[in-house]
Amino acid sequence: ALAALVASRSEHRAASRSEHRAASRSEHREAHLWTRFCQAAGKEAWAGAAYTPARVALRSKHREENPLYRKACAFFREKSALEWEAWAAEHGLPLAAVRPYTPRGFGLPWAFAEGAQVEK
Length: 120
Hints:
Layout: H1 2-41, E1 55-57, E2 63-65, H2 67-76, H3 81-90
């Protein structure tokens, strides 16, 4: 039983290291998208902040807001989500407005008008 526990712990550590490397590779692969976004938006100074959090931990337990986060929020409020989506398409960037999920063809039977057609 002890050998199985030791083996499972070492497998877990190996899996954790593997997952961490995969996440690092994923972040590295996606950094170019942030750089392209910054260039297209005229915000080249933001390029180095690709993975900075919205809040930064201080020495104490309190977290301070990242100043770039506020700037980015203000920048994105300049256009609607659909305008940003169109802008991104013009610049070849994979950016899409978030839309609510509505399954097609589902709903309460009495919610449809008589003779209404349901999309399939």
